[in-house]
């Protein structure tokens, strides 16, 4: 049972004269492009409300299959090394975050993590190092047919930092626009955010723009083009109201230690990408 910091325990939160929280809003992005696809309109909305909005990148971006795909090899006439590939993706991320009006936080390569090797404790350590305690944390939801272990790690790190008292502000979690029906089907509430700050083509451009001489490779769009198309049709953010942590165990260690939630691995017989394809559906609401 988690009683230490239920949302109703929110207290003594510093509010500025303008009536907005003084704590920075820190959106934790597991990988480059997650900030836009999961949380883009919400980021813009926080900016429009005058918040100090920062977007913290966790992954290195080095393990994407796009790096070794023929389309990229043909474009470059070579296969980039992981570090070069990750750096190009960082530039996409930085451009994207600035286009949303927020401040990118890109830790060093050493401070970040390889994809598929991320644990909640790792993510919590990165957040502690790069965001002030008491930050208003936001990240990806664990619901909506989410499958990526790195995304679960970011979710659990944020949940644990709140549960452990690192911040008093209840976290917010977001799902992809085309996954919201799956969240509703699971019986949870979904809140549309960014109604007056939708994502426009210019916000997606950093992940689509290609110019080899400028080291712009359009990696994001090559990687998950359907996600970008779905967002173009439904350009808002969808916050999942996670009233109770689904699988987060009670804190039995020091209350400031992050807790890793055990989670079954996806079926090894079904490639993750194929599972996403089978779940892909564009809602008509
Ligand atoms: Zn991701």
Automatic annotation (TrEMBL):
Keyword Ligase: no
UniProt KW keywords: Zinc
Coiled coil: none
Region (Disordered): 249-271
GO BP: glycoside metabolic process
One Pfam entry name: PIG-L
GO molecular function, one term: hydrolase activity, acting on carbon-nitrogen (but not peptide) bonds, in linear amides
InterPro entries: GlcNAc_PI_deacetylase-related, LmbE-like_dom_sf
SUPFAM superfamilies, per the entry: LmbE-like (SSF102588)
PANTHER family linked: N-ACETYLGLUCOSAMINYL-PHOSPHATIDYLINOSITOL DE-N-ACETYLASE (PTHR12993:SF11), N-ACETYLGLUCOSAMINYL-PHOSPHATIDYLINOSITOL DE-N-ACETYLASE-RELATED (PTHR12993)
Entry protein name: LmbE family protein
Gene source species: Nostocoides australiense Ben110
Organism classification: Bacteria, Bacillati, Actinomycetota, Actinomycetes, Micrococcales
